[in-house]
Amino acid sequence: YIFFTILVLASACTDFEDLQLDPNRATQTHPGLLLTNIEAITFNYIDIGAALASRQLAYTDGASNEQYYNWQRAGFGRYNSLRQVTKMDQEAARLNLENYRALALFFKSVHILELSKVFGDVPYSDALQAEAGKFTPEYDTQEEIYMQVLADLEEANSLLNTSNGAITGDIIYDGDITQWKKLVNSFKLRVLLSMSKKGGAIGTQIINQFKEIVDDPTTYPIFESNADNASLRFQDLVNNRYPYFNSNSLKTAYYMEASFVDLLKDLEDPRLFAFADITPQAADDELPTTDFDAYGGIDGSALLATNTNLVVAGLVSKVNPRYYNNPVNEPSNLLSYAEVEFILAEAAARNWITADAEEHYNNGIAASFEFFDVAGVSAYLLGSEVEFNSSTGIEQIITQKHINFFMNGGWEAFYNNLRTGFPTFSVNGGGVLNNQIIPKRWMYPQDELLYNEANVSAAITRQYTTDNINGEMWLLKN
User: What is the mean pLDDT of residues 147-155?
Assistant: First the structure.
């Protein structure tokens, strides 16, 4: 009896231990099976909050924190995506699939930069090591993160090769190695330009790396047309449709922002017709959709009651109905050819490269018109307010890039404004809650203060003294 009892207890103990592992859950897989979901998450760069903060849209069903610059804390959700990328990298290493390792370097770069642009210093080299028992990672400086990303993108470009095996599970470029090399190098140009405020040895290194890519297209191919766009294309299928398809809130509570509408009117920019709907008053007056007077906006910094009254009066445009009626609408661009041309134009205007800034500027506008399926770019480029002027070149380039980011490109429009000051965002309408100041960052997540206090406190003290939304991170300092 005692012997039988011992056997039962031993068996029960073993069974309990076995229950800790799910026998139906795979512990190994092909990296291509992870890639599809990683792409679907990473390439979704459509964020309506960014449109509010970037003074392209305004909200009327309440006081939006993004619109009135009253945000406080953000989250570390992107580390969930980084976990998946890390697993893909591990599986690629196990199977010796170097092309997937290159993609992992790219995706790691995208996600860690997005985190760093939100907060400043964040955990990276010490992060994602819970399996090794490390639950309180130290914070890398933003400078260290950017230097590591530049090195990783260089490595990714060198690893990408047709001899390193096929890429499967790819919903962006269908496994085309050349396209991925173009994206990696074009993205690196964006990263380098985002550091334009840095001088000294770092500034020289940035310029040299930028020039190296531009001067050697064989080693470093970059985007050459809209066919190269890093786009997530939507499908009229469940969970694959445009993010704001059938959004009643977008249809009833979001309106065009006045300074953005006025900018497009001043430039006589026909992209306005693709972005917005005519006002109810213009519809009553039977104005055509190609009449600039048929469009109006509300001031993103004005009091909510002021804006609501203008909406009730029928004087404000909603977004174009395609944004909430079309299940496919337009693709989400992580990076577009138009943006790359504007990046090259700015680099030329800053004398980083030997190139014609006006030519790249014009190419960027033409690519934007093509993407939004708008005609008339030749006449538009001849407009007195559009024609390139070297004395105001950088402002013109950033302004056109800002227009191209409408309802696309995530927070890049906002980050470009922080870096350059262009275009000017309205903060004096009485509604802005951050002492009429545009924030420069978000505060760290509350969980970090609870569970990783020593490391996050060290990062805060190192950068800002106190954790506040107006702190100036390394990237924005001269």
Answer: 98
